Amino acid sequence: MAQETIISMKTSNIKFGLGATREIGYDMKALGAKRVMLLTDPNLAASEAVVVTLAALRTEGIDAALFDRVRIEPTDLSFKEAIQFATDGRFDGFVAVGGGSTIDTAKAADLYSTYPADLLTYVNAPIGQARPVPGRLQPLIAVPTTAGTGSETTGVAIFDYLEMHAKTGIAHPALCPALGIVDPLNSLTLPPAITACCGWDVLCHAIESFTALPYHDRLAPAHPGLRPAYQGANPISDVWSTRAIEMVSRNMPIVMAEPTNLDARGQMALAATMAGVGFGNAGVHLPHGMSYPVSGLVRDYRAPDYAVDHPLVPHGMAVILNAPAAFRFTASACPQRHLEAARLMGVDVTRAVPEDSGNLLANAIIDLMRRTGMPNGLEAIGYGPEDVEHLVAGTLPQHRVTKLSPRPVEGEDLRHIFLDAMVYW
Ligand SMILES: NC(=O)c1ccc[n+]([C@@H]2O[C@H](COP(=O)([O-])OP(=O)(O)OC[C@H]3O[C@@H](n4cnc5c(N)ncnc54)[C@H](O)[C@@H]3O)[C@@H](O)[C@H]2O)c1
Ligand SMILES: [Fe+2]
């Protein structure tokens, strides 16, 4: 088979700016919906973002049914609850106001109420059957309230599959929202730890997509329909990812120190969306692949500021705790890209040699982790060397992302990386 020669760029339409949420009634009407399901999580049910959204929809004569039972870090069970509500309601549009948990739940509610099927039907292989989505969904408008996942731009919905204690997902372009409304006003109330975890998710989307296996190192698909959504690093995604690395590195310390700095909040919100376009097309690799068991196997860790009634390693934290060790491992495959990522984070690399690239990038990340209150490695959230076998076993099925590592990775390599991620300073 020949090497891949083709790339494409997919994303949702985006509307960005202060007060953009107030235009959602106009935008939903333009999409033709009259009766929508508005999803949010319990903490945000009475938030300004939800109140403004409901008012804007009603002003345009759109009826909205509020579903405020989204679970933070959704599971197969919580997806099913939202799908049932959607199925009963026979809605002709969906609105998600919240973080990635809410936007992903809305995608699932839309998908399974439009094309009813057993949950595993559309879930990524090998956990699910990875059947393609049969056709178009009802229009979904995503209103992110975190500067994080970029889920407003992607056709991906992630959930925790309880039986396997591991995260998995559904990935198909049809899941991509019709519109993302990115309004910096909606992220002003984010508390510090959530701001930091979400910011780290953005930075990892950007660095991982920039350092992913290049698209031309993959075999071409036998049929265009089989080309993976995650195509590998490519010149289009590089534009989005590199800019996002700079914007997050510069603005994360500012929003941590000045939570109401609207300009910096706006830069973080925009960077989240831009990194979403980058990784939504190129893909992510080891830090994300390894994060799924780190979240899924949690015992009793509870992250500060996350108002939930269950132990939780937030997604961005689960990702960043692996990142320095993972980049030390991947750097030898594309040292120039690791050096460039470090430079975009503000490191002086003028005298650096390629062999330094992994450590330079890892050290820049560790420095910022310390400044943003992240735990000191996997041991600080309750894991030890005795857990490494389970962590590796939970990472191996995540082929969709681990195969995008620029350096091929086996179980033994993952063991070494997880051990390296136990303590950083
Ligand atoms: N679909 C994708 O492309 C994609 C990409 C990365 C991550 N994810 C998934 O997204 C989920 C994480 O999403 P997230 O990090 O955006 O957060 P989240 O939706 O899990 O919410 C985290 C916490 O922040 C609170 N919150 C959200 N907005 C707030 C605001 N404006 N003010 C105060 N509190 C607020 C929530 O109530 C919750 O307690 C994970 O399940 C992850 O796997 C999806
Ligand atoms: Fe992520």
Write up this protein:
- The chain has 425 residues and is an alpha/beta fold.
- It folds into two domains: 19-182, 3-Layer(aba) Sandwich (Rossmann fold), CATH 3.40.50.1970; 192-420, Dehydroquinate synthase-like - alpha domain (Dehydroquinate synthase-like, alpha domain).
- The chain contains 15 helices and eight strands.
- The strands form two sheets. Strands 1-8-5-4-2-3 form a six-stranded parallel β-sheet, with helices on both faces.
- α4 links the parallel β4 and β5 (140-144).
- α5 runs parallel beside α7, α8 packs across α13 and α11 (335-344) runs parallel beside α12 (357-371).
- The longest helix has 23 residues, at 235-257.
- The termini are far apart.
- Fe (ii) ion is lined by residues 149, 201, 205, 288, 315, 319.
- Fe (ii) ion binds at residues 149, 201, 205, 288, 315, 319.
Keywords:
alpha/beta; binds nicotinamide-adenine-dinucleotide; Rossmann fold; six-stranded parallel beta sheet; two-stranded antiparallel ribbon; 2 domains; 8 strands; binds fe (ii) ion; single chain; Dehydroquinate synthase-like, alpha domain; 15 helices; about 425 residues
SSE blueprint:
Layout: E1 13-16, H1 24-30, E2 35-39, H2 48-59, E3 63-67, H3 76-89, E4 93-98, H4 100-114, E5 140-144, E6 156-161, E7 166-171, E8 179-182, H5 192-211, H6 235-257, H7 262-282, H8 286-296, H9 315-320, H10 323-330, H11 335-344, H12 357-371, H13 388-395, H14 399-402, H15 411-420
Parallel strand pairs: 1-8, 2-3, 2-4, 4-5, 5-8
Antiparallel strand pairs: 6-7
Helix pairs in contact: 1-2, 3-4, 5-6, 5-7, 6-7, 8-13, 10-12, 11-12, 13-15
The protein binds nicotinamide-adenine-dinucleotide and fe (ii) ion (FE2).
